Amino acid sequence: MNPPTFRPEAAADIEEACRWHEARRPGLGDEFLDGVGEALGFLGVRPESAPVVHRDVRRQLLRRFPYGIFYGVIDGQVVVLGCFHARRDPRTWRSPR
Asked: What is the total count of domains within the chain?
């Protein structure tokens, strides 16, 4: 499978979370990005393994961090729509930014 495609909002979510973690402890931002990469690698092998959480949108949880990657599979391609903390209200994610 091809590498995932990121919507601009998703890339911004990941960058923001990385900066937040890095500000808490140097190196933690890189560890967060490693967790995102691990989750995305799994999706590359089994894109339809994560549960559907809204219509055709799926959520893959990160192993170490309480974040979810929200994505869709379009024509066999993983499209990352967003990434945010598990305690964040999903309705705010679906709202226009």
From this structure: 1
Structure tokens at 38: 């691990």
For residues 34 and 14, the answer to whether their CB atoms sit within 8 Å is no
Q: Which residue has the tokens 């598990």?
A: 86
Taking each helix axis from N to C terminus, what angle separates 8-24 and 28-45, rounded to the nearest 10 degrees?
140
Burial class (CB in 10 A: 0-12, 13-18, 19+), 58: buried
What CATH number corresponds to the domain at position 38?
3.30.2310.20
pTM: 0.88
Expressed as residue numbers, the domain containing 70 is 5-94
The continuous run of DSSP H or E covering 85 comes out as strand 77-85
Q: What is the pLDDT of residues 46-76, one digit of tens each?
A: 999 999 998 999 999 999 999 999 999 998 8
